[in-house]
User: What shape does this take?
Amino acid sequence: MENSTSESATPSPGRGLQHPVVLCLIVAVLLAVVGDQYPLSPFPMYSNIENSTNVLFLTNEKDEPIAMSPYFDVGSAQGKKRFEDLVQRKSKSKTRNHLQATEEEVATAGKEFLEDLWKECMKKKVRQEKLAKTGAKEIRVKMRNIRVNDDGSFDTENVREVARMAVNLNLPAEP
Amino acid sequence: MSFLKSLFRTRPMQWSPLETFLMRLLFAAALFFFASNWDLQQITELEKPNGIARFLPLKWMTIPGVIITLKWLTAASLLVYVAGFFPALSLTIPVLAICGLGAVRNSMGDITHVTQLGAMVLLGQWIVYLTAAIRAKDWKKVAARVHSTAVFASILVIAAAYVASGIVKLKESKGAWIGRVPWLSIHVIKANQNEYYSKLEHKIPAVPDFPLTRPVPMSVFWSDVKPRLGKDITADQFKAHIAPRMIVDNPNLARLFFGTGLVLEVLGFILVMGRRHAFWFAAALIAMHVGISLLMEIEFWNHMALLGIFCVLPGVLAVVGFGPKADASHAAPGE
Assistant: This one.
């Protein structure tokens, strides 16, 4: 089981820079400074809480929601991050928030986002077949803004369409 | 005063060969099954190279034939590592495969935080074994104390990750994180909506007499909500439709709940102060993760698993008499 050459020794806690707590704090500061650079991460989720956030979702031409994971291999939260990343790359002001980017920048990011989703769907026939069964003729990308106001009330019905694409999934019938 | 001094005194940490073996076994399993990206699709371009993908060409790793080869080479290497043989070498392939594929995954335009802690612990252990092998000029035999040092490095990395997370929260919010906790209410709503729109499964029906516009102070919770929990109000309905309201309407209680989590993160260094400290502090962190997953659908299985393997397991083993023989005064509870 073990290929040991000696019994466990009891390492004494070092002093100064070798003290375990000091070492831990040094590594922590390094992680915080370096940021998200895989495999390193300071786990910054929810580090800057704001009073407004967005949810990305897809609908068909009748504005009925379409599931994301089964057809496009990406969930709502991941999809939003990818869309915001595209907005940031297209935006002159480098904002990730679609509400702060121009109409044109959001439209370009939305179009590219839908193209990426479509490429992902086309990678596997099973995804195309599943999507075809929904009968969707169009895919629309929507962003719902959720806000908590100063009086404690919520705004949850502010929905914006950021892109749409016609789809044709007339798959040949199985022999 | 002497009680406080003893509470904050850093104690030497050591683990028996049986403990380090079990930790390697469970860590290898956690890495292989939960901290890896074996299902990555082949990609033609890295949208936004991240981490080591900025310096190393890694696209080739996602070629289907390559990824399956890496998967089984990693499995074989991890078995050798579990057995305790030349870990400086046997961990090399897992480090390359897990860190490489993780970097590719996070270069696709969005960053997830599922696998980093496992990858960082793996990297920390590899550095320990590599350094020991170079110093001893022996790549085959490993002293038991080196295995202990590898475990200590793992706990150090886990602890530092929590402290870093706390530091980033304080820095990004300019110290106002706890004050802004009531705004987390919209993130609870968002988390539930994300879950729904991803698969369109489990639409959580609204509670007719508790629309999001109806305030829920604690008095209303005790009189109108709690008696109905598990009856005509399900746990999911509570999370999706009532909890956000309660966070806003009971801001100081919410600050206490979430603020405790921030305090635990900032004090993460307690994990390296001794086995007993590590056991109890890890248990508190796991409780924090369970609380967050119950409320926000955000699950940190990897974090909980690693805390369990490196901090809680030794305490349990000590209770049943498998802790280190020497220096029993520094062992986990029960020994």
